[in-house]
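User: Just a sanity check before I run the rest of the batch. Below are the structure tokens for the first item. I only need the designed sequence back.
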């Protein structure tokens, strides 16, 4: 970038921000902080809020072409931080993620990172701190008046994590006429049961001060004001027409504690009430690296929705399967099994119903890519030919494998999950892909001494079973991994991706 261009860029940005005022909460001395500029990254922007009667700060990440393409208008994405943070945190790594996506074709947008205090981006129940009113009535109009935005809900999205995830949901729930897309990540939300058991200080310091119920225990904490902002109570059949104006994308990591229980339960509510939405569960915790990974899908999704796109068909990840040498009967024996003088192999039962030989061979090839030094066999079981029990008896008689549960694992697909679940005492580790388990969710009880790999898609007809098994894993302390991906029409590609992801978690010893 030329020296002259940098000077002009700084001058234009100073003109744009020169009318903004400082937020005392960020600087008790009330002295104006320096406005830092790293070309596109602008910290220290501020304006006066009449509603809050103080000054609000926000950070900007501007389009690279903003100062050269002076007639162009841009969509806006509001990005909300978590509790204990502010607009002045270092957003550099998030901006690197955005730049990386732009390098791969993502359109330029204006990103606004406002200061959210510890407000959960809502008005307090007593009206003393009207943050949401400020956001909708002042901040959004200020951004549209100050910058060349596409000032229309179709081109205005909101995202954020943790407390910002709650704000992302609540702001869109209360103002579907303002936002076209809402993509909350790791929503800071608990089930009612969890709130009722929260310590008194925990409830009042984080939730009661905003939603009321201070001094209350039990049901008294779940105030009407809380329910007005809580996704659990708002995604009802009665609200469907109004809230379906917004496109929804929810993301959460499988290493979260109570938050995934709540986020996954919200997905169940959305499915039960017929709301179209995207939901993802990936490997990760309550961390910036997880949220930046989630952005790699949510931002392209936002772009597609802004541009009139309908169904989101993108699958994250690539499928790369290497073929393996199979026995004449379609089984696979590891090198460790073949070389062993005394056979005592682990059995991986690969259970399906009516898959073609070509697809089964690919799946077994994918599952056999690691652990060759261990003694194991992968044994295909087509339940259109024999029952699972019959297949297990057949293979145990033919090979020295799977004689005891600790030497037996199962990979079950779709409706064959029921057969696996009916014989669960026979297996130590379960790999369940979009699996049907039982008619009764209450009978899905995880064993704390077993391992469960739950892999499904967000439009699966067995979504309740996946949720119930995960919740039971958390309750019992069972070891687990949980993945939820995008449901697409190419079922073979979906299966190959599930195989590839599960192979990383297989244990053959």
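Assistant: Here's the designed sequence for the first item:
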């Amino acid at each position: 970038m030329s020296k002259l261009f940098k000077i002009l860029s700084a001058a234009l940005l100073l003109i744009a921000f020169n009318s903004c005022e400082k937020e005392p909460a960020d600087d008790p001395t009330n002295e104006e902080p320096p406005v830092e500029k790293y070309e596109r990254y602008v910290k220290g922007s501020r304006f006066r809020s009449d509603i809050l009667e103080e000054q609000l700060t926000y950070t900007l990440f501007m389009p690279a072409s903003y100062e050269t393409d002076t007639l162009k208008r841009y969509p806006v994405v509001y990005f909300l931080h978590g509790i204990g943070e502010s607009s002045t945190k270092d957003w550099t790594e998030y901006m690197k993620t955005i730049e990386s996506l732009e390098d791969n074709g993502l359109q330029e947008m204006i990103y606004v990172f406002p200061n959210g205090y510890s407000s959960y981006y809502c008005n307090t129940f007593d009206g003393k701190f009207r943050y949401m009113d400020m956001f909708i009535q002042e901040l959004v109009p200020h951004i549209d008046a100050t910058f060349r935005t596409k000032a229309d809900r179709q081109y205005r999205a909101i995202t954020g994590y943790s407390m910002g995830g709650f704000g992302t949901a609540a702001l869109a729930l209360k103002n579907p006429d303002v936002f076209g897309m809402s993509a909350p990540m790791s929503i800071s939300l608990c089930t009612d049961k969890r709130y009722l058991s929260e310590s008194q200080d925990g409830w009042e310091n984080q939730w009661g001060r905003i939603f009321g119920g201070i001094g209350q225990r039990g049901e008294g904490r779940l105030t009407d004001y809380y329910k007005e902002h809580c996704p659990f109570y708002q995604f009802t059949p009665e609200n469907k027409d109004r809230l379906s104006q917004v496109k929804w994308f929810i993301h959460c990591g499988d290493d979260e504690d109570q938050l995934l229980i709540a986020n996954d339960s919200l997905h169940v509510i959305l499915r039960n009430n017929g709301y179209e939405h995207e939901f993802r569960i990936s490997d990760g915790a309550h961390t910036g690296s997880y949220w930046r990974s989630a952005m790699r899908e949510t931002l392209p999704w936002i772009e597609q929705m802004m541009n009139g796109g309908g169904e989101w068909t993108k699958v994250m990840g690539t499928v790369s399967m290497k073929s393996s040498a199979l026995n004449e009967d379609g089984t696979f024996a590891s090198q460790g099994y073949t070389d062993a003088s005394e056979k005592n192999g682990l059995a991986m039962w690969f259970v399906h119903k009516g898959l073609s030989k070509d697809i089964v061979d690919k799946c077994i090839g994918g599952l056999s890519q690691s652990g060759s030094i261990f003694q194991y066999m992968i044994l295909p079981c087509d339940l259109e030919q024999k029952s699972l029990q019959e297949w297990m008896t057949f293979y145990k008689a033919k090979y020295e494998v799977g004689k005891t549960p600790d030497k037996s694992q199962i990979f079950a697909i779709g409706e064959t999950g029921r057969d696996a679940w009916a014989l669960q005492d026979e297996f130590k580790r379960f790999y369940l892909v979009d699996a049907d388990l039982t008619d009764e969710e209450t009978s899905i009880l995880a064993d704390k001494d077993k391992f469960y790999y739950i892999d499904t898609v967000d439009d699966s007809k067995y979504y309740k079973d996946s949720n119930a098994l995960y919740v039971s894993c958390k309750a019992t302390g069972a070891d687990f991994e949980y993945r939820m991906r995008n449901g697409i029409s190419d079922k073979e590609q979906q299966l190959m991706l599930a195989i590839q992801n599960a192979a990383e978690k297989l244990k053959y010893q």
